[in-house]
């Protein structure tokens, strides 16, 4: 009997195991299955860890989690694995179109995922064909056509391995190294390399007279911000439930000051308030079909693409139609669809492109956040860039499915991924409430937006002196990195990946991207004379696939394709 090792039992590993069992059940084939994961809560993984703070929120609406469908009953060998409900059924989710969207804390989704895994494990653990190893895999070796999976204490031999290990540590940047060196030579200075878990800031957040620099101005920064300010000295209070307008009230005097900064200094853009407003930006089924067809003609077909136009032209056509249909909800204009299309194309090629329909991003950051909040509430004329970002979000699942494992050249793949990343401040935007909290902290003089745009940083004995383009400066004694590195394979520092690269068993699709894989998930190795029996699903395959950071992609067709292909070739 052959043995498969699934390394990583987060959401992707969970869904891979479920689909593997479906296909084994249908084929009546037998298999020894080993699942490795060191987590206390398998199924959830570190992102959805059950014991993380309530202040870590998702950036996906519960409404959108309709894509977390349930599991039907599985009969495999002598085992009867029960069905498991969809997320909406499990959470007893109900919502009217005019009710605000809800964004659950991450641990709530983690609880769903962990319960779903345990409902499998409870049955599988009685089978001699299954073993769950609660250990971290430190290396994976390929010898004599067999794979050796090594944990710190044991070794296991298997025929094939599936890697679903998600976020991996990366090599420390030069900037962070220099910050640590500075902190090591000056007492009282602190540097944190990672934003999670936010519990590491528990001692820090109840200190007063601290000025803290936050490297990054994205979703992780907001989680860190909330963790620091919900403390013994103060908390948030919503003063207008219809808009989530909030205040930060201080129950005791505190002198905490947060200073976020990033390379472009631009804020995240909140998602629309409710289903009714979000529907303004929803393409029709025919438009989605048109978009899919246009992409696949180049990405999966024989037609050659020499620029990114194959992607942006069809989506620009959809966006221009939607913006026209917004009518009085849009910024005033007298342009036809072709003229709007031209502006959309120009903006997608260069987001510094200026037009009266594009939100002016040179205004004060506070006013910029307020403007986008009002658009998300439907209380202000919608700018064209806001519309582009929301339509892009609705088109993303189609893009991710149609573009993955494309036959485009590597440079064009990198360009498409870069464009998708650049729109994430809209498409992966936070709840309105998060951005209202940012404004509330500014009003309470707890957070400053004066240094967001790539400040000069000088090392001084007291810490780090940040200087903005107005000549203003502020000194921080703590630096927290909230930037989550993208999955560049050659920058990953975990032992299992470094070992596979050193043995030439995996290679990047591009120096700036992840592992190159086939459509069945099998890695493309430099040892081209043989197929290496290692498959990779998820974040580390970025480039071969895109959309790797979305929770719903963990339950998508790529996992189903891998399971079907694996069982078909199983002897």
UniProtKB/TrEMBL annotation:
It comes from the Bacteria. Residues 5-168 form the FAD-dependent urate hydroxylase HpyO/Asp monooxygenase CreE-like FAD/NAD(P)-binding domain. InterPro entries: FAD/NAD-bd_sf, HpyO/CreE_NAD-binding, L-asp_N-monooxygenase_NS-form. PANTHER family: BLR0577 PROTEIN. It holds the Pfam family NAD_binding_9. This is FAD/NAD(P)-binding protein. The lineage of its organism: Bacteria, Pseudomonadati, Bacteroidota, Flavobacteriia, Flavobacteriales.
